[in-house]
Amino acid sequence: MAHTSAAQSEPSGSAPVIEVRMVTVAFGGLLALRGVDLDIMPGERLAVIGPNGAGKSTLFNVIAGDIAPTAGKVAVKGQDCTYRPSRHRPRLGVARTYQKARTFDGLTVRDNIYLALAGHARRHRALWRSSVDARMRSTAANVAETVWLAGQLDHPAGQLAHGQKRQLELGMAIATGPDVMLLDEPASGLSRGERERLIEVLESLAPEVTLLLIEHDMDVAFRIAQRVVVMADGETVTAGSPAQVQKDTNVHRIYLGTEATA
Ligand SMILES: Nc1ncnc2c1ncn2[C@@H]1O[C@H](COP(=O)(O)OP(=O)(O)OP(=O)(O)O)[C@@H](O)[C@H]1O
User: Fold this and answer.
1) Cα(39)–Cα(52) distance, integer angstroms
2) Separation of 34 CA from ligand 1 center, angstroms?
3) Shared-domain flag, residues 88 and 11
4) Percentage helix, strand, coil for the chain under 3-state DSSP, each rounded to 5
5) Considering its fold, how many domains does the chain have in total?
6) Which atom of ligand 1 is nearest to the CA of 61?
7) Ligand 1 centroid vs 55 CA: distance in angstroms?
8) Is residue 120 lining ligand 1, measured as CB closer than 6 Å?
9) Are residues 119 and 219 in the same domain?
10) Which segments of the chain does DSSP mark as H helices, in order?
């Protein structure tokens, strides 16, 4: 069984887009993360799984900049971001989604996506011209189509079903053209059909987009990820391809249950 080093990628010649080094997070006397190491390579599709309380959300939030670690280091594209709050991540091409979608309920689907685009354009000093506005409106419509919301373009976000709201949030993240997407349980609360759509959308992302997801839904995690990191008790227990992780008897013991089959 490998320990923290199991979450290191195979050497591939390029630098990791995200580096997590010996990250520890203590909540009072409780160690939620115990010296976690993780490298995520550009274009990699990585899922972090593990039983309740394993430390997945804490690790995710440290990477996203929502929790500052008690010890250790986080770098994005080689820049030390350990104590940089989450609002700095988009400047580095990092977008994230939340378990509970954060959309503007009074605004339409189009305007939610437009706002995400506008925020990104401002960062890149785009000019506020009518041609830019028209282009962003058209891009918003294209993004809505990508996330299966073309028919709801002019519906207020507040009227969308849970799954559609999550699709919208995913669209808002995709709209910014991120290099790295951090997805917090993207399949949570989705119907079977919506999960299939989610998988289709994620599979349609450009291959250079790096994807990190924490996910309880094994089907989604194993179908999207090239590499799966298994956490338990604040540590990375093992990592490998979905096929390797499904066969790992230690994973069965700590997470899937001994009756699980590969
Ligand atoms: N803000 C907090 N204050 C105190 N303890 C916390 C806090 N956040 C998480 N914890 C504890 O840290 C440990 C790891 O929690 P975390 O949410 O990271 O696990 P998880 O793997 O994401 O679990 P789940 O799958 O249930 O969401 C748990 O014991 C949890 O109770």
Assistant:
1) 23
2) 13
3) yes
4) 40, 25, 35
5) 2
6) 18
7) 6
8) no
9) no
10) 56-64, 109-123, 130-146, 162-175, 192-203, 218-224, 242-247, 249-251
The dihedral region occupied by 35, where left means phi > 0, alpha psi between -120 and 50, and beta the remainder, is left
For residue 57, give the nearest of 27, 16, 12, 28 by alpha carbon: 27
- Give the domain-ending residue among 131, 160, 177: 177
Q: How far apart are CA 171 and CA 12, in angstroms?
A: 30
Number of H helices, E strands in the chain: 8, 10
Identify the CATH number of the domain in which residue 42 sits: 3.40.50.300
Three-state secondary-structure class, residue 36: strand
User: Both 85 and 152 in a single domain?
Assistant: no
State how far the Cα of 112 lies from the Cα of 123, in Å rounded to an integer.
17
Its sign, for the CA torsion 27, 45, 190, 253, is: negative
The reply to whether ligand 1 has any atom less than 6 angstroms from the CB of 51 is no
Q: Are residue 149 and residue 259 in the same domain, yes or no? A: no
Task: State in Å: Cα 111 to ligand 1 middle.
Answer: 34
Q: Report pLDDT for 5.
A: 46
Q: How many residues does the chain have?
A: 262
**Strand 45-49 relative to strand 227-232: parallel, antiparallel, unpaired?**
parallel
Is the CB of 180 inside a 6 Å radius of any atom of ligand 1?
no
> In this structure, are 61 and 191 located in the same domain?
yes
Q: What averages of pLDDT result for each successive group of 10 residues across the chain (262 residues)?
A: 46 82 96 97 96 94 96 96 92 87 90 86 58 82 91 94 91 92 91 91 93 91 94 93 90 64 40
**Residue range of the domain that includes 74:** 1-93+178-262
In the three-class reduction of DSSP (H, G, I as helix; E, B as strand; rest coil), residue 73 is classed as strand
